[in-house]
Design goal:
Blueprint: H1 2-14, H2 18-30, H3 35-55, H4 61-86, E1 93-99, H5 107-118, E2 121-125, H6 132-142, E3 146-150, H7 159-169, E4 177-181, H8 187-193, E5 197-198, H9 202-225
Helix pairs in contact: 1-2, 1-3, 2-4, 3-4, 4-5, 5-9, 6-7
Bound molecules: 5-hydroxybenzimidazolylcobamide.
């Protein structure tokens, strides 16, 4: 049952069909499929294929936009279920999330936010094209534990560093952990700009956020002991 459905999901994204993608997401849930299976094995592979085709000039921008719309349709359905699964857990930490200035890619960052929420984190999503100062202001307002910064363009990933600089300028860096991600981002880049961690996908982002919270708790208890 699952494999043909995953193929149909993937194809609905490649073909840029929001109504089909939404309906497949609904069908998957009604058949008892885990929302994460649908995302990771059905819809995300579709988005990956779209990226490959666009890179090879086998697909053009309007088609890519239709694919993004289809992805959003499916995610809107699956997110509700993922959020529902997260509501019964204790609060794991406060995360401010956004895509860097100059960058309008949102899908991956939204997926990170959804999975963090589903795993008990309280997430505030600033959206896309967000300047560093806005990350810092929201982190201060919410007493955030983690700031998550997404970038999908090689030209905008350098703005992840700008976010770290804005946190430093606001005097927030010691208490706030920064995690970065996005297709062009690497662990090495994260180290280079002084981020606290890099996650290659939304599942790894949850694991990383948990590790960062453990690190925060350990340094707080060490400070108390001193
Ligand atoms: Co866009 N685009 N795009 N795009 N786009 C990419 C990113 C290219 C790689 C496509 C290509 O050439 N192969 C390319 C960038 C090349 C480069 O910089 N070297 C590109 C380009 C060039 C552009 C435009 C400049 C095109 C143009 O106008 N000529 C333009 C950008 C305008 C701008 O931002 N100023 C543009 C526009 C678009 C849209 C609007 C059509 C659409 C975005 C819709 C939206 O998000 N609202 C779009 C899309 C959909 C893509 C691709 C096809 C898919 C991105 C995506 O959603 N992936 C992408 C190709 C690709 O990435 N392979 C292509 C699926 C998600 C699930 O993966 O990597 O985003 P993800 O996120 C993961 C992971 O990285 C990690 O977890 C997520 C979930 O698993 N993660 C984090 C992400 N953020 C994190 C933060 C953390 O703290 C931790 C983990």
């Amino acid at each position: 049952m699952q494999q043909p459905m995953f193929s149909a999901m993937r194809q609905s994204i490649i073909d840029g069909l929001p109504a089909t993608a939404t309906s497949l997401a609904q069908q998957a849930l009604s058949l008892g499929m885990a929302p994460l299976d649908a995302i990771n094995n059905g819809f995300v592979p579709g988005m990956e294929a779209v990226g490959d085709q666009f890179a090879k000039a086998q697909m053009f921008l309007p088609d890519m936009m239709a694919s993004a719309e289809a992805m959003r349709g499916a995610m809107a359905v699956l997110e509700v279920e993922l959020q529902r699964q997260g509501t019964e857990r204790p609060m794991a930490g406060i995360v401010v999330l956004g895509t860097t200035k100059g960058d309008i890619h949102e899908i991956g960052k939204q997926l990170v936010g959804t999975l963090l929420s589903a795993n008990g984190f309280r997430v505030y999503d600033l959206g896309a094209d967000v300047p560093g100062e806005k990350f810092a202001a929201k982190a201060l307002e919410l007493s955030a534990d983690i700031v998550g910064v997404s970038a999908l363009l090689t030209t905008t990933m350098r703005n992840q560093k700008t976010v770290i600089e804005a946190l430093e300028k606001a005097g927030l860096r010691p208490q706030i952990k920064v995690m970065v991600g996005g297709a062009p981002v690497t662990r090495r880049w994260a180290e280079e700009i002084g981020a606290d961690g890099y996650a290659k996908d939304a599942m790894s982002a949850v694991a990383l956020a948990r590790r960062l919270m453990e690190g925060k708790a350990q340094s707080a208890s060490a400070a108390v002991l001193l």
